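Batch manifest, entry 17 of 40.
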Amino acid sequence: MNRADATRVIAVLACVLAGTACRQDMYNQPKYKPLAANEFYDDNTSARPLPPHTIPHGRLDEDTIFFTGKNDEGMLAASLPVPVTRELLARGQERFTIYCSMCHGAEGDGDGMVVQRGYPPPPSYHIDRLRNAPPGYLYSVITNGYGIMYPYASRVEAPDRWAIVAYVRALQLSRHATLDDVPADQRTQLEAAKP
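Output type: structure tokens
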């Protein structure tokens, strides 16, 4: 056996010995799986109850409607759980432009750039079904996805999802608004601005 072959044999033996020397103490240590039975405690469970006043690490999602778009009974939110302000609409427009317009288009017609390049079009926000859908439905679709639209819960924070919903509602209202929908004091300004 030449020197190169001997070196290879030694290297292979070293690898085999190193692999068998690994211990699995962490894997084989005594432990209980979550919610497994345990006779040590009176309630026979391994999971211990949380101490009083314990709060979760991170954010506290106590407001069911705000974080899911549904109430405690599972019904979709019939109104936005946040006040609609000029700032909220501006934020919604900004987030809509970033996350939604590439498929839904700038005006919500379902004709975004991705669709123009061959991707299946989403429905227009201006169809009756979506104009009459509760805001909780729109929030739920943004959060969980629908059809070929993937969920945005990990990409868009809950406050921004509601801002997008408010902006979509503004798009819908602006498309189908009549002069009667404009407050009287602002109607005179619009009529004066007409050419």
